[in-house]
Amino acid sequence: MTVFDLRNIRVRSGEEHREAVEVAIAPIELGGERYVAVPETVPAELSVTRASTGIVLGLQLSVRLHGPCVRCLEEARAPLAVDTSEFVADGRPGDAPFDEDLDSQYVEEGILDLAGWARDAIAEAVPATLLCRPDCAGLCPHCGTDLNEGSCDCAEDPPDPRWDALRDYLA
């Protein structure tokens, strides 16, 4: 787990501290499939900016995610650029005013969970359909033949009779 101690950063209101960090990215499971970052540890840039009521954290990194294609299950690679930010309020639950929604879930007692934050940001950046190539034809739903390598001998499904009235109307 990659963490960063925010207690050592001294910035005044309006000032920013930038630092290059290495972040270990744990495998991500999406839709029951496992995706891994290559390489597992990626360089990132962390920024800490003091605001009047807390600190603003920024994280920028680039990663290549490897895993199965959603259509044919072959190896898919997705280059992702992540640029995310979090706000950490100065107040604590006993102090007023405090809004729990303004407190980052990645910071606890001045320690930033960089690995968890980066992993969640990467998961949000993954495209809805991760494909091995843009024109992936997928697998035959009947016999499982990879349609990228050629067609199969499966017969076409008969048309659904519930659409007959529409077909007659359009004919």
Taken from the alpha-carbon principal axes, the silhouette is elongated
Structural class per helix/strand content? mainly beta
Low-confidence stretches: none
H-E order: EEEEEEEEEHH
Terminal Cα separation, in Å? 63 Å
Please count the helical segments.
2
Q: What portion of residues is helical?
A: 10-25%
The largest sheet is: 6 strands, antiparallel
Number of domains: 2
Q: Tally the beta strands.
A: 9
CA-atom Rg in angstroms: 24 Å
Strand content: 35-45%
Q: What is the average per-residue confidence, as pLDDT, rounded to a whole number?
A: 88
Please give a structural write-up.
By secondary structure, the chain is mostly beta strands. It folds into two domains: 3-136, no CATH class; 137-171, no CATH class. The chain is built from two helices and nine strands. Strands 2, 3, 4, 5, 6 and 7 form a six-stranded antiparallel β-sheet that branches. The longest helix has 12 residues, at 114-125. The protein is elongated, with a radius of gyration of 24 Å. The termini are far apart.
